[in-house]
């Protein structure tokens, strides 16, 4: 979610929405009844109404507060935003009661298994203690897929690390202007599981230094997927694709709290 502030945390604004809703659905409702329903004092209700009136969202008619057209429009807009925020949260916390894993050994149906992450793959191991467990729903030989149900716990895994090699743009010389010594040194120091070419220049740079990209399509999404499974990723590209990668890393942190360790190295050859 890209909002800097969660709408659900805005108590004052949400109370105003509740008041607008109450007055719209029940025009004859008394203030004391609204106060009891919302769990606040009549004095607080009066203060909220004064604030809404000053903004043109409520108008007194025959001594009763009525939402104006502007107030109704605000109510609709904010409820729509709140609905989107809630749906986004629900998508992120949806309950998963079954999954497919790779059998790490021979598994029998109804056998309890432990679920662990190894080399970016979810592995089911029979009779193994793990933070996440489940029950095999069918027989499976080693290295076959197995459906696991009755899931409990959360799979333990560490995030991978990200090394970004930023190449010059094509207009600045692209792959012809890289410092191969720097690239070679970085590749030698960094233990990577996946090589991601962020763009065409990144793909060409990879080939020129003797490595083959494992990912060239949907590079940012693929890199994030690998990193979330504990794989180290070498990302090679120009400024534009690097910015996209960094933006996604920051968005992941905001959305989930997961912080990916990364380093950026400019591989442009010094003039």
Question: What's the short story on this structure?
Answer:
This protein is an alpha/beta fold. Helix content is 39%, strand content 22%.
Written overview of the protein:
This protein is an alpha/beta fold and 271 residues long. The chain folds into 3 domains: 7-92, Arc Repressor Mutant, subunit A; 98-152, no CATH class; 162-266, Cobalt-precorrin-4 Transmethylase, domain 1. It is built from 8 helices and 11 strands. The chain has a 5-stranded mixed barrel with strand order 3-5-4-6-7. It has a 4-stranded parallel beta sheet with strand order 9-10-8-11, with helices on both faces. A two-stranded antiparallel sheet has the order 1-2. A hairpin with an 8-residue loop joins strand 6 and strand 7. The two termini are 42 Å apart.
What is the topological layout?
Layout: H1 11-25, H2 31-38, H3 42-54, E1 58-61, E2 64-67, H4 69-92, E3 98-103, E4 112-118, E5 121-126, E6 132-136, E7 145-152, E8 162-166, H5 180-189, E9 194-197, H6 200-208, H7 219-228, E10 233-237, H8 239-256, E11 262-266
Parallel strand pairs: 3-5, 8-10, 8-11, 9-10
Antiparallel strand pairs: 1-2, 3-7, 4-5, 4-6, 6-7
Helix pairs in contact: 1-4, 2-3, 7-8
Largest sheet: 5 strands, mixed, barrel
Name the poorly predicted regions: none
CATH architecture of the largest domain: 3-Layer(aba) Sandwich
Report the span from N to C terminus.
42 Å
Shape: flat
* Radius of gyration from CA coordinates: 28 Å
As a percent range, the share of strand residues is: 15-25%
Listing every helix as H and every strand as E from the N terminus to the C terminus, the arrangement reads HHHEEHEEEEEEHEHHEHE
- Tell me the strand order in the biggest sheet: 3-5-4-6-7
Total strands: 11
Taken together, the total number of domains comes to: 3
Helix content: 25-40%
CATH topology of the largest domain, which one? Cobalt-precorrin-4 Transmethylase, domain 1
- Average predicted local confidence, pLDDT: 88
- Count up the helices: 8
Structural class, by secondary structure, is alpha/beta
CATH class of the largest domain: Alpha Beta
């Amino acid at each position: 979610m890209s909002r800097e502030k969660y709408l659900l945390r805005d108590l004052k604004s949400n109370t105003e929405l509740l008041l607008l809703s109450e007055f719209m659905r029940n025009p004859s409702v008394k203030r004391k009844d609204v106060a009891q329903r919302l769990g606040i004092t009549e004095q607080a209700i009066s203060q909220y109404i004064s604030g809404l009136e000053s903004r043109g969202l409520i108008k007194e008619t025959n001594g009763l507060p009525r939402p104006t057209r502007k107030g109704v429009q605000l109510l609709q807009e904010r409820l729509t935003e709140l609905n989107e925020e809630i749906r986004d949260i629900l998508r992120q916390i949806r309950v998963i009661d079954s999954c497919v894993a790779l059998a790490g050994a021979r598994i029998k149906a109804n056998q309890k298994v432990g679920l662990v992450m190894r080399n970016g793959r979810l592995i089911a191991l029979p009779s193994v203690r793990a933070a996440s467990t489940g029950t095999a729903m069918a027989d499976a030989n080693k290295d076959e897929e197995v459906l696991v149900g009755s899931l409990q716990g959360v799979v333990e895994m560490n995030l991978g690390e990200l090394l970004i090699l930023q190449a010059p743009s094509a207009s600045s010389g692209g792959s012809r202007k890289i410092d191969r010594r720097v690239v070679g040194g970085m590749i030698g120091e960094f233990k990577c599981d996946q090589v991601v070419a962020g763009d065409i220049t990144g793909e060409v740079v990879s080939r020129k230094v003797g490595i083959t990209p494992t990912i060239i399509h949907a590079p940012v999404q693929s890199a994030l997927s690998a990193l979330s499974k504990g794989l180290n990723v070498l990302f090679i590209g120009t400024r534009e694709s690097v910015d996209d990668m960094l933006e996604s890393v920051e968005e992941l942190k905001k959305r989930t709290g997961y912080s990916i360790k990364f380093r950026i190295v400019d591989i442009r050859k010094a003039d």
